[in-house]
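$ run holo --ligand "iron/sulfur cluster" --emit C-alpha cells
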Amino acid sequence: MATMFNYFGKKDRLKKNVHDLNWIDLSDFIFESGNYAMSHSVEMIAEVKRRANGNPQKAYESLLEVCDEKIDEFESIENRHCCCKRGCSYCCYQAIYLSQFEWKMLLYLINRMTRNERKAIKIKAEANLEKIKSKNIPIKLTPFMDETANNKLYLKQNIPCPLLGEDGACLVYRRRPLACHSFRNYGISSECEGKIPQNSYTFDEYHPAVRLPIIMEFSNTNDMLNMNLLSYLLAENL
Ligand code: SF4
Ligand code: SF4
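-- output --
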C-alpha cells in the first residue's frame, strides 16, 4: 500500500511541470479533460446562451467566460496551476487560426480601437503576411494538414502576432482567440522563454479539451475545419 501511495505521489509531483511530462501523462490529462467537457457540455452551452441573452456580441464573451470557469474548475480538480498571464507573450509567435465566429468578434473589437491602433495592427499584419507567403505557410487550416509541422515552420520565422501591443501584451487579452486560450503552461512561465522559437516542443499537450463541445455548438464544423490565419485576416480586412 505504501508503495502505491509513493508511486502516485511521485506521479503527482511530476505532473506539476508540464515540460517534464511524458506523452502518456499528457494524453491522460487531455483524455480526462475531454471526458469532463462531455459530461458538462449541456450545462455549459445553456449557460453561454443564458448569459448572451440573444446578443451575438455577448455570445463570444460568454463563451470565453464559461470556458475559462470550467477550465479553472477542471484544473483545480486535477491539481494543476496555470501560470499564464497578460504580458507573457512567448507563445504569441505561433500560427493562430480563427473560425468565422471568432473573426467577427475580433473585428468588432478592433473596429472600436483608435485609427492609429488599427493602422499599427494592419502594418504588422501585412509585414507578417509577406513572410508567411514567402515560406508557403498555409493561410487556411484544412482537415488533412499536419498542424504540428505547420506550426514548427511558422515558429521558425519568428513572427510576432499583430495584436501584440507596444507594451508587449495582447491588445485583446480578455477576449483573445480560443486558440490562444488553449495554451496553458502548468509549470513556470520562464520555461516558455527560448523553448518556443527553438521548436523544442509544440503546444499540443497544453490543450485541455474543455471548450470543444461549446465551440462546436456555436461554430459549425465546416467553419472550424476551414479556419483562416489571423495575420492574413487582419492584413486583408483592416
Ligand atoms: S503559454 Fe507560456 S508564454 Fe504563453 S502565456 Fe503561458 S506561460 Fe506565457
Ligand atoms: S491574439 Fe493575443 S494572445 Fe493570441 S497570439 Fe495574438 S497577442 Fe498573443
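-- notes --
Confidence is low (pLDDT under 50) at residues 1-22, 200-205.
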